[in-house]
Model the fold of this input.
Amino acid sequence: MNVSRSRELMERATRVIPGGVNSPVRAFGSVGGDARFIAEASGATVTDVDGNTYVDYVASWGAILHGHAHPAIVDAVRTAAGRGTSFGAPTEAELLLAERICARVASVEMVRLVSSGTEATMSALRLARGATGRDRIVKLDGCYHGHADALLAAAGSGVATLGIPGTLGVPAPAVADTIVAPYNDLGAIERAFEDHPGQIAAVVLEPIAGNMGFIEPVDGYLAGVRAACDANGALLVIDEVMTGFRVAAGGAQERLGVRADLTTFGKVIGHGLPVGAYAGRRDLMAQVAPSGGVYQAGTLSGNPLATAAGLAALELIEADPGLYARLESRARVLVDGLTDAARRLGIPLVGGAAGGMWGLFFAEHAPRDRAAASRADHERYARFFHALLEEGVYLAPSGYEAAFITAAHDDACIERTLDAGRRALERVG
Ligand code: KE4
Done:
């Protein structure tokens, strides 16, 4: 496959952009090889600068739900752009988007729009701390909530330990109030509350994890965390930046029957334009400036182009009641087809799907937490990734990510992917 132009651009890009990319995972560090510079995308495919076209399962890390360059989205953004790109003043579109989110997510009564998932979760936790007067937060090992300092905490050696900096540049005090517990371990959550009585403002979690690979909560886990928060006067912050409007119209909360106090959104609510949001109970959100004492602000919050794209995306969802059933059905055909093919070759491969989100691990059993995810065969994943890439199928360039399908991934697309996947598995061996 000719990737000479991508290679040339990357060589230049590394001189002026760290690692040549504006977000680390794009550099193919986990899988090696030449990162593809994408020239354009349409429907279920992306095309790189060398003219190679791939069936795309990254979907801008979940932001693209209806397919790339969807006419309704493009028209909405084009029309908005013609009226001006930003005003720094309230607009009707922001109101409409907030109203639609409130209408679709049962736990949401008020919304504040921001410009990224990072900003959304950072702000939600500031609000949780401000509303409870408590400083400690609990996050789960392997869940990613963006790069705010307090959330870049690595798990310590214990089961539910105070965080240690997960990266250079995060001072120890920034994570000194962040408790890190394993995913799917309810006992660890209960012990955290026992060890820090009256000190924990919130537990923040991904309701279906997509940043340590695709990992679903075990039965009773989310309900148990909800009960532990209620018993200890803490808030439950459910990070639906990835799962929101991705696994169901009402997100993972609707699918799994759990209710957040605060919810964060991103990705689909901007359909590729920069949008995030934190949202939830009125008594909490009313404490956000200027109506309350918890400060948060943003020049481009509620940007007219981003809200136009988000509104168009949510309107398309409302017009298509069968969307999530179709997405999940096709995702399951993909996962089942690939795991069956692997089984016939004696290759341990497991996977799962929820709405338009799915994932695979080269492992005998489905991991339930980050430690188990790290024991999967990521070297084999890297070889599978490249074998698929050569076949014109673009998975996430890391085994610690989830995969996504869009409304544009039709049955022919899925069949083509399965054919490519079977050949790739034979090559991976
Ligand atoms: P952003 O700041 O990247 O918009 O959102 C951060 C975030 C928050 N919460 C969840 C559950 C997320 O998945 C994310 C970001 N997701 C990653 C995908 N693993 C974005 C890809 C990237 O970092 O380039």
Notes: The pocket of KE4 is lined by residues 23, 25, 61, 116-118, 121, 144-146, 206, 210-211, 239, 241-242, 266, 276, 401 (CB under 6 Å). The first strand starts at residue 38 and ends at 42.
